[in-house]
Amino acid sequence: MEHHAILRVVSKLLIPPILVYALYVQWHGDYGPGGGFQAGVVFAVAFILYALVYGVDEMARVVPPRLLHASAGIGVLIYAGTGVVTMALGENFLGYNALAHHPVHAQEWGIIIVEFGVGVAVASVMISIFIAFACHNPPLKDEDW
Amino acid sequence: MSADLIGIAIIDILLFTFLVVTAFAIMRLRNLFAVVMLAGVFSLLSASLFVTLDAVDVAFTEAAVGAGISTVLMLGTLALTVREEKKSTHSAFLPLLVCLVTGAALIYGTLDMPPFGGMDTPVQTYLAPDYIQRTPIDTGVPNIVTAVLASYRGYDTLGETAVVFTAAIAVLLLLGAAIRRPGKDDGKE
């Protein structure tokens, strides 16, 4: 891949906006279209683009597969854990009203937290599935491009 | 019919025509690389249809997951197998019959449904107005879809997240977790 200057430069230019856009979709899911699922996928796409251009090994140095497997579980745990916390505070499972004094604030907090859990889980799952597939393929040789 | 509705109808007819053409092309092609690309096009067209239905959240998901990630993963799968579909040896009669019967049953089922966009359906008479009224008071979240997804229907979304997690576990079990790359432990390290 050393010779593909255009691909390398363009992907380097593209990856930061993709990551920022993913964060925007994540945190503005309350106000516009989007949310954890879409943000997770867009976030994962940035890493997949990096892996396609620089190779899976380089990408695995940035986010090790072991970390991804853990964070996929952590994402689900954040979501389910929010339910357990609200139960401990005397509400129903996922009854966010217990999270703050005012129900509107509590709902907003609850939605933001569970959407964050969804985003973490989806992004980690997508990247680790991609790594699982890509690991079995030899990297493309220059002649094949 | 107002000019807006005619415009929407024209866009809908165009999109559905493209969908049918893409589906036929997917059926006829033997080159699986082209099939994967056309499947991505199919997803993008469905996403556009969701936009015309004002379901932007669904359209966003369809475009990101269906047209984006799925295509990449299908290409990854393709690299593990062959690029040409084998000629089928059996006749197409039985699959065609199954498709026609299923399609007929589905169309028969839609005859009972209220007309599209009908104002007197249960959804329009109490469910949607109820959510539109309650969401600002209960949650203060402007995007009602997000409020329904993460608060009113929080259980379902937890289930969906668990499904995504389960998919990852299944793929990692089948293909290997790749904590160490297979190429690396051939003594090179």
Order of helices and strands of chain B: HHHHHHH
> Any idea what the CATH superfamily of the domain at 1-84 in chain B is called?
NADH-ubiquinone/plastoquinone oxidoreductase chain 6, subunit NuoJ
> Outline of chain B, from the CA principal axes?
globular
- Uncertain segments of chain A are none
Q: Largest sheet of chain B, described in full?
A: none
What is the end-to-end distance of chain A? 9 Å
Greatest interface and its residue counts?
A-B, 59 and 49 residues
Task: Give the CA-based shape of chain A.
Answer: elongated
What does this protein structure show overall?
The complex is a heterodimer of chains A (145) and B (189). Chain A is mostly helical and 145 residues long. Chain A has one domain. Chain A has 5 helices and no strands. In chain A, helix 2 packs parallel to helix 5. Chain A is elongated, with a radius of gyration of 19 Å. Chain A starts with a helix and ends in an 11-residue tail after the last helix. The model of chain A has no long low-confidence stretch (mean pLDDT 88). In chain B, 73% of the residues lie in helices and 0% in strands. Chains A and B meet through helix 2, helix 3, helix 4 and helix 5 of A and helix 3, helix 6 and helix 7 of B.
Helices and strands, with pairings:
The complex is a heterodimer of chains A (145) and B (189).
Chain A: H1 5-27, H2 36-54, H3 56-62, H4 65-88, H5 103-134
Helix pairs in contact in A: 1-2, 2-3, 2-5, 4-5
Chain B: H1 3-28, H2 32-52, H3 56-80, H4 93-110, H5 122-138, H6 144-152, H7 154-175
Helix pairs in contact in B: 1-2, 2-3, 6-7
Notable characteristics:
heterodimer, A: 145 residues, mainly alpha, 72% helix, elongated, B: 189 residues, Four Helix Bundle (Hemerythrin (Met), subunit A), 73% helix, globular, disordered C terminus
